[in-house]
Amino acid sequence: MPFTLATWNINSVRLRQGLVERLMREEAPDVLCLQECKSPVEKIPFEAFQALGYTHMVARGQKGYNGVAIFSKIPMEEAGDKDFASLGHARHIAGKLENGVTIHNFYVPAGGDKPDRDINEKFGQKLDYLTEMRDWFRAEKPEKSILVGDLNIAPREDDVWDHKKLLKIVSHTPIEVAHLAEVQEAGGWVDITRKDIPEGRLYSWWSYRAKDWDAADKGRRLDHIWATADIAESGHSSRVLRDVRGWDQPSDHAPVFASFDQ
After folding, report:
1. SS3 (DSSP) at 104
2. Taking Cα atoms as reference points, which of 118, 58, 57, 109 lies closest to residue 88?
3. How far apart are CA 203 and CA 218, in angstroms?
């Protein structure tokens, strides 16, 4: 059963409901994973998305902060969630499709402004979150699974607009990149986006601070699609919908897509 999947940090699902509906109409991924929904589950506009064919939803919500949701045209059942680092945040939800593929949707903590856990509690929380992800995947090796989401780390030199300038900027520091690599190794995850697009600069996030984000193009690839090795070869057609960053009142993230022949 081939299917197309998209991941998108929407930065408020209710504020940007219209953008979600537009993506559903124009691109029609079979599965859409959203992060930073900033809404209790009961206030997510699920009925509007159902009308567009997304009849299945699994979600964890939180008023005003965090929040993750998976919408699917394909039958899907909930497959649990984890509270990594015991933060009490809605940052992970899993759904299992009828073909047996489990999708993990993550919103990893951003980590604050200073890459030093001694003076910045949020940075420590981010590292602890990643460490617990690593330990979980080591203990329970994932199979036939896809991991998506805003992981808030751009790991490669060509995942940022200037590698040297960002080495001390949260999201691209060596310690964060090392922690993310350990998560990837622990689960045997394959970076599907970079499997399909192995070379060249690639971004999924552009700051609101730039007056002209497109011209400045100071982006980072913070949003990821990974798959376990047993299904990674079935992944293809990866792309970042850069133009979505230019829609009216946009999120600062663009959706990332991939297709799987499962």
Report:
1. strand
2. 109
3. 9
- Which residues make Cβ contacts (< 8 Å) with residue 51, sequence separation at least 6? none
Q: Distance (Å, rounded) from C-alpha 95 to C-alpha 124?
A: 28
Domain boundaries, given as residue ranges, for the chain: 2-261
**Cα–Cα distance between 120 and 116 in angstroms, integer?**
6
- The C-alpha atoms of residue 94 and residue 102 are separated, in whole angstroms, by 7
Query: How many Cβ atoms from other residues are within 10 Å of residue 200's Cβ?
Result: 6
| CATH number of the domain located at residue range(s) 2-261 in this protein | 3.60.10.10
Tokens matching residue 3? 């299917």
List, in sequence order, every residue forming a beta bridge with 69; answer none if it has no partner.
34, 59
CA distances from 128 to 85, 175, 179 (A): 6, 12, 9
**pLDDT tens for the chain, residues 1 to 262:** 899 999 999 999 999 999 999 999 999 999 999 999 999 999 999 999 999 999 999 999 999 999 999 999 999 999 999 999 999 999 999 999 999 999 999 999 999 999 999 999 999 999 999 999 999 999 999 999 999 999 999 999 999 999 999 999 999 999 999 999 999 999 999 999 999 999 999 999 999 999 999 999 999 999 999 999 999 999 999 999 999 999 999 999 999 999 999 8
Contact 150, 106 (CB under 8 A): yes
Question: Which has the closest alpha carbon to 141: 172, 183, 186?
Answer: 186
Burial class (CB in 10 A: 0-12, 13-18, 19+), 150: buried
* Alpha-carbon gap, residue 46 to 219, rounded angstroms: 31
Task: Please state whether beta strands 76-78 and 92-97 pair in parallel, antiparallel, or not at all (unpaired).
Answer: antiparallel
3-state secondary structure of 114: coil
SS3 88: coil
